[in-house]
Amino acid sequence: MSFLRSAVGLLARAKLLEGSPTVQTRRHIKRWVSPTLRELAHRQKKLGPQKPERRAGFVEWNQRSELFAFGKRLGESFELSELQRAFTEKSFAEREEDRRRQLGIEESDLHMPHNSDLVEKGQHIARAYVEAFLQHQLPKVPNEGLQAIASFLLSTETLAHVSSHLGTKDLIQSTEYPPSAESLAKSLHAVIGALASSSGIERAFIFVRDFICTQLNQKDLLDVWTPQEPIQLLEKICQERKLGEAEPRLLGDCGKNTVLAAYQVGIYANRQLLGKGFGEDVKTATETAALDALQSIFDTRDNRRPFDFAIQLEPKTVRLG
After folding, report:
1. b/e sequence 75-100, b meaning 16+ C-beta within 10 Å
2. What is the pLDDT of residues 164-191, one digit of tens each?
3. Which domains does the chain have, with CATH numbers?
4. CA 287 centroid distance within chain
5. Is the pLDDT of residue 214 over 60?
């Protein structure tokens, strides 16, 4: 009798649990889902890697909205017509004109503006401001070093890196997709030119400072510019700045006549230590010491004062002519 009572109690509890909302139900995945997914994965693997599709080819793409959002993301005010022209390459414009001509469109409506003049204008603005910025921030570096650093900032690789991270890849109207590094760099120059035309030259200068000059942040300048002949350059700098004759001296050595030999050389001028370096032989240690001395003279060491990326150079200090 007691067994029957316990069985009735268990049945009652089971009914309560079935009506409770806390009980997890089955997922009920259809039987066709798994084989379908396997078949799709097999077909995709059989086709191999596919070329990336243009984002502009999607149904929901709106070019004007994307251009407007691009300007707002950067915090700049662009004229949409100028920004549209900045992202239109000459090859794309020529192909579009040929397509319109084949469709029988009137000659007056065939012309499509492109970014050739904006690219040239942006290149001129970017180089002028970068050179002025470097001269202000690195006054002790000679012209040779400033030109090397400016060439790094204005190189195709650096500009393409900046342009791609600003989101220009899908906005560029080009005959190739994805756009090449050269196309990305040219589009960034064109954006600078369009900004100068829309908001003035000062806003273009600030744009160059914020997005191009900042690529020097936490960058070892010795990796950007390494003198080919440091000893000769050091002697020339010491003579020009009247620091005295540079004289290398052996400070220490260990492991002579072994494969683990090490030498320490110091370079002095007027009894002042300019720099020191190590190497597996005296020549290498002297060149390393010369590089260390040049870094000290030019104030380009790692522990130098950081670049001031908040500075606003006066337009008259930037040589645009």
Report:
1. ebebeeebbbbbbbbbebbeebbeeb
2. 999 899 899 888 888 999 999 999 999 9
3. 62-219 (1.10.1520.10), 227-298 (3.30.160.20)
4. 32
5. yes
